[in-house]
Amino acid sequence: MATNSIPDWISSLEEEDYVFIRRFILASGSLKEIANQYDVTYPTVRLRLDRLIQKINISEKNSNEPYIALIKKLALNEKLDFDTAKLLITEYKKLGKEI
């Protein structure tokens, strides 16, 4: 696959996400096996997978709105609290309507 044909959602992931995806695929999608590899509980791995799914969905839904995608990603990675993220997105959308 040529580098210029890599989907945007892949480039929005972090290194640890790539490692998780690789392990997940090599474990044939077994969350139980992944939990054993990371030495964590099944619900912890399920939460990690759910967050990864959210990252991908956010990236795909907001490919035309990179600012909104960034804010959601920061909130998802707990680098920005949810209420602040919501406020920033709301204000950004108001600016778009004024232009």
Task: Walk me through this protein's architecture.
With 99 residues, the protein is mainly alpha-helical. The chain is built from 6 helices and no strands. The longest helix has 20 residues. The chain is elongated, with a radius of gyration of 16 Å.
Q: Can you tag this structure with a few keywords?
A:
99 residues; mainly alpha; 6 helices
Write the layout of secondary structure elements.
Layout: H1 8-11, H2 15-26, H3 31-38, H4 42-61, H5 66-76, H6 82-98
Helix pairs in contact: 3-4, 4-5, 5-6
Count of separate DSSP helical elements = 6
Strand content: under 5%
Structure summary, number of beta strands:
0
Question: Which stretches are poorly predicted, pLDDT < 50 over at least 5 residues?
Answer: none
> Helix coverage percent of residues?
over 70%
C-alpha-based Rg, rounded: 16 Å
Order of helices and strands: HHHHHH
Q: What is the terminal separation in angstroms?
A: 39 Å
How would the global form be characterised?
elongated
Structural class: mainly alpha
Mean pLDDT across every amino acid position: 84
Largest sheet: none
